[in-house]
Amino acid sequence: MALRTNRDLLVPMVLVGEVTHPELPWDPFLVSAAGEPYIPLGAGGVLYGYGPGSPAFAPGDHAEPGATLAAPGERQNQALLGYACLGNPATAQAGGRSLRGFVCGLRGEGRGVLASFADEDLEQIHPGCRVAVRCLGTGLRLLDHPEVSLHHLSPGLLTALLAEDRGGLVAKVRAEIPSYLLGNGVGRPAATWEVDLVSDDRALMGELGLQGLRIGDVVALPDWEAVTLQGYAPGALTIGVVVHGDSPLPGHGPGILPLASTQRDGVLRAVRDPARPILFT
Amino acid sequence: MRLLTNRHELLRTGLVGEVVPPLADAQPYQPGVFGEPFLLPGMGGVTLRRVGEAAFGWAADHLEPGASLYRQDPGGNHALQFLSCVGNRVRVLTGGAAGAEGRVTGKHAYVLVDFPLDVLERLAVGDRMLVRAEGVGLRLLAHPGVLVKNLAPELLERMGVRELPDGRLGVPVRRTIPRVAMGAGVGMHSDFANCDLMFRSRAEAERLGLADLRIGDIVALEDQDHRYGRGFLRGAFAIGVISTGMCQMFGHGPGATTLLAGAPGTIEPLPGPSANLRDLIWARAGEVH
What we know:
The complex is a heterodimer.
Chain A: E1 13-19, E2 30-31, E3 37-38, E4 46-47, E5 66-70, H1 74-83, E6 89-94, E7 97-107, E8 112-116, H2 119-122, E9 130-135, E10 149-150, H3 158-161, E11 163-165, E12 168-173, E13 175-176, E14 195-196, H4 202-207, E15 218-226, E16 230-244, E17 255-262, E18 268-272
Parallel strand pairs in A: 12-18, 13-15
Antiparallel strand pairs in A: 1-5, 1-9, 2-3, 4-5, 5-8, 6-7, 6-9, 7-8, 10-17, 11-12, 14-17, 15-16, 16-17
Chain B: E1 13-19, E2 30-31, E3 37-38, E4 46-47, E5 66-70, H1 74-83, E6 89-92, E7 101-107, E8 111-114, H2 117-120, E9 128-133, E10 146-148, H3 153-156, E11 162-163, E12 169-173, E13 175-177, E14 184-187, E15 195-196, H4 202-207, E16 218-225, E17 231-244, E18 255-262, E19 267-271, H5 277-282
Parallel strand pairs in B: 12-19, 13-16
Antiparallel strand pairs in B: 1-5, 1-9, 2-3, 4-5, 5-8, 6-7, 6-9, 7-8, 10-18, 11-12, 15-18, 16-17, 17-18
């Protein structure tokens, strides 16, 4: 049975972003958790050959799949971050052609929306290209499960994430991440920020089976609430998706964008399935 | 036994900040821990609360004790925020309390300064203050695995830090903060501001053993590696001071400014029932107010 939603009431809206250009300060070094200076590479602009299905534990710093889009001005960009939903169509203008992709994530701190394109199309896209995003999904609610909040989910992706089960909801996830490993993004708005899986303890990543995470993998965050702001909440559960790659910075790592969250124990369940495909399949 | 440090190598520099006006947005409400909107004071300006008082129990958000300092020029402000150290001496330069002496008690993207209550009553937004900054560059010569952060050498010497027989550094702390309670501030610089502790209610704080925290408490942060930022590493302890109090935003709470940052296995928290800045920065100098 289909999940009953208010999708018929949602209003689509077209927002326009521009593919950003990577930025570095005059002194380009950051310092890793191990105390080593490095030059960050991976955030902003276009990452050719890196997209949904690529390893999250990749070299680089906050590697962003596909093309990163931002709207001019802080408030316009916050609107793009607030309204763009995973799975929404993104149409790039490049080389006189229209290239069709989709939204596959976002970066908090007002950085931008991440859009995936077919490899051969992405090769045509470069910083400065205009991309129109047909935004639909903000405001989406589950009529029979009012205690579960949704973020950044286009209605078309809902059944790829959630199913009804014994009066509640269930999500198949590839991995579970303990709350004490959630770092940068804590206490920030769930509607416009992802939260990083802190990867400083490399051995622990292996012990918890997280090394194989991919961009687009669905994960469970037990005891984590992401209804308004995000944080530790015993009994809560959040289901999220991996949206960017690892980082050498302490307290940072692959980014998890919250998609569904509840404060209440028992209304949403996660079932671990190592064979679960990524969300965008 | 006296800790070996490079104190004699340190430079002391004068930094001038002014009391920052409290700021608000046109949309004044923020969501509280259970989604309820709130509008509360706490950040910026002069707050008539001091180190040694309870962290909880105030109708406040991000309660900053005492005076909050910043500079309007970004470069100068970075210098003020990075170079000021907890325990540094402060003198009021202008306004109704000119000449009064204070102490830096923490950082919260503003430098937080404690004064006796009668001085706080006479301070105003815009008053300028001189921070005699000393502490950046301080090292523990026999403990290369422990980095010193935001900590004045004279405060370090009063904290009761001692070498244990196994070579670790023993630090008296009033509480150890469990790893699940580390909130907003993880992933940011440990040489700046503070890291909030998170829990949604007094009951949760009680379960975590933190309900009686006081502003100024010296605390240990479990599994937190703050050597090059605020990260996570099993077996590492960071030592901090509770520099801000009550907070209503979810994921935020009383915040700890880092003082010592250890590699795994280098710091051992010791029971320190009275480990609080109020006594450490004022009492021993004979300046109890």
